[in-house]
Amino acid sequence: MIALSTYAFAILLFPVLVAVWYLRKDYASGFIGLLGLLAAGVLIAVSATLPHLFFDHERYLHDLWTAFDTANKSASGQASSVDYFSPIGPVYDWVFRIAVELRPQDATSVPLASAIFGLGTFVLAVLTLTRQVSFGTLGLVLLVAVATVVTPREPDMIFAQTSMSWLAPYNRWAAALAAVVTVAFCCPPGRRGVPEAFLLGFSIAVVFLIKVTFGAALVGLLVAATVFRNVLIKHAVVVLIGFAASLTAAELVTGQVSANLADIKTVSGFAKETWRIIKLITQLGEAAVWAIGSAVLYLLLCENSAEPKRFTPVVLILVAAAMACVILMQNHWLSESPIYAMLPIIAAQWAGLFRKGDTAAVSVERQSKALTLKILSVLTIAIALIYPARDGGAMVAQFLQSRQYPADERLANTGQAGFVLHPRWLEQPDEEVTVDYNRMLDGFSLLQEVGAADPDAGPVLALNFANPFPALLNKPSPARVPIWFHNGRTFSNEIHQPEEEFFSDAEFVILGHGDPSGEALWEIYRPYVQEHYEEAASSPSWTVYRKKGQDGQNL
User: Fold this and answer.
1) Quick check: 188 and 230 in contact, CB under 8 A?
2) Which phi and psi angles does 54 have, rounded to 5°?
3) Sheet order of strands, 508-512 included
4) Cα dihedral across residues 77, 79, 82, 86: positive or negative
5) Is beta strand 419-421 parallel, antiparallel or unpaired with respect to 53-55?
């Protein structure tokens, strides 16, 4: 379905290529810009109004549980890093807080949160880029960025896969806004002024408060753009002022900035979070292809137009590609950075692809150059459209399949209502996603049996990679507990939360059998659980413990 929807979305974008070929540059720019804006708006609307969340992947279901738990924590007023450990920046739970305020919490809170962030990215892109780039460039940037934000597509491949995982939405959010800022720093300055520079600083702060590595990379790109005089020194200063002012305001209002930095410092002490040099090496080739290809494309566009060749755009394209490579290396994703898709757009903007002017040929040589320029122009836009066609196609597939299959009635009236697992997985009981899904339902049943769903029952803490149960039970998530456990990344035998803090308000503890994270947590916390909790129910997948009273009996 994703592949078919991708082809359908690509066909819808085909008029863009026709416009580049047949229309004058100024008309083509307006047409492409308008189509890009409209398509981006449609994707945001679709993401906000999905009737169900459809999941079709052979793994990563437990990663989706982390998003459900984030929504649940936000609904109960828990703040990341302040109320629970989180290496993810606080923007993630801020956006979910808005989502659960707009609509009662269910599975579609995840695409609604993406739609909200997509709308914010749309607005920031318009405000920061309108006076700097052509309307056609603006439309392409908006479409790439918004499609990146809202897509449920499984990452790792440049071409569309046949599955949807909703894996780590915050990575897509940060990548999309980082791509917009990259365009601002790498395209010609145009009429960029102090307000736009301040908003760029705000945008970097937002990225920083989602994934600190993305934000640090953008600061590095700002330095490069300033060194090569693509950003005026006074504007660079304003960008840094906007960045610092935004972080300061966020800290004063929420207190989450310093708390998040403390959590990130803790995470940086884990061995698995060190510099992934092998991953970097594996991605250098792809980054080089995008960088060199886009630089050559820029030079060819200039060669066949009246634009003089410049050194600065080539350098900035190379720096942006290197930045994208390092970001991806830190986040395990191949062929995923929308910054790559922005490189040919940056090249086209520098080459004046949509600049108004008479390009009529007056000689055979100029006729030949005009034809070559048209071919290169169509190629440039086609390359740029690979990403939105891929990601937009996945959103179209999500909408169609969410309407095709009914939601699981067993999840009705829970915080995961509206969740749909592709029926084909239920026919393959040994597949990882089916096992995880059935484990979730089994644990849910056990907890209901022991009274965890009762109105006066306390929170449930899961010794498992993720905890889907508070959302299922419509109960607050346990305080101080992160949204996921990954041995060597969010905890270890040496670095973990003290027992009294970890179990501070948990009335129930549910231990996942066969889950590596759960087994590692059990080794750490078993003495405390056995002393303060008593076994209440068990199954092959889970054991449920209930807190003892002061006299050693169950509460």
Assistant:
1) yes
2) -100, 130
3) 460-463, 508-512, 542-547, 533-538
4) positive
5) parallel
Three-class DSSP labels, 388-450? HHHHHHHHHHHHHHHHHCCCCHHHCCCCCCCEEECHHHHCCCCCHHHHHHHHHHHHHHHHHHC
Chain mean position to CA 221:
20
Please report, for residues 126, 188, 369, 385, 497, the alpha-carbon distance to residue 29 in angstroms, rounded to integers and kept in the order given: 15, 17, 20, 15, 55
pLDDT tier at 276, thresholds 50, 70, 90: low
Q: Please tell me the predicted confidence (pLDDT) of residue 76.
A: 92
- Nearest partner of 505 among 526, 484, 532, 478, judged by Cα: 478
Sign (positive or negative) of CA dihedral 290, 165, 145, 276: negative
Q: Exposure pattern of 438-474 as b/e (b: 16+ CB <10 Å)?
A: ebbeebbebbeebebbeeebbbbbbbbbbbbbbbbbb
What's the predicted TM-score (pTM) here? Answer: 0.93
Token pair for 193: 């002024």
What element of type H or E holds 523? helix 516-532
Q: For residue 184, what are its two tokens? A: 């601002």
> Under a CB-based contact definition with an 8 Å cutoff, are residues 260 and 211 in contact?
no
Give the rounded percent of residues in the chain with a pLDDT score beyond 70: 92
Q: Report CA 496 to chain centroid distance, whole Å.
A: 27
Element holding 198 (H helix, E strand): helix 194-208
Residues 445, 44 contacting (CB under 8 angstroms): no
Q: Residue 11: which pLDDT band, with cuts at 50, 70 and 90? A: confident
The three-state secondary structure class of 199 is helix
Classify each residue of 334-366 as buried b or exposed e, where b means 16 or more C-beta atoms within 10 Å of its C-beta.
ebbbbbbbbbbbbbbbbbbbbeeeeeeeeeeee
- What tokens does 461 get? 């803490």
pLDDT band at 362 (very low <50, low <70, confident <90, very high): very low
Calculate ∠ Cα 383-165-146, nearest 5°.
45
Partners of 533 in the β-ladder: 547
Other residues' Cβ atoms within 10 Å of the Cβ of residue 521:
25
DSSP 83: T
What is the distance between the alpha carbons of residues 537 and 269, in angstroms, rounded to a whole number?
Answer: 37
**Does residue 206 contact residue 249 with C-beta atoms inside 8 Å?**
no
> Which candidate, 399, 381, 394, places its Cα nearest to that of 160?
394
Say how far apart CA 79 and CA 103 lie, in whole Å. 19
Q: Read off the amino acid at residue 523.
A: E
Please give the Cα distance from 7 to 386 (Å, whole number): 11
- What gap in Å lies between CA 114 and CA 26, rounded to an integer? 33
Domain extents in the chain: 2-402, 428-547
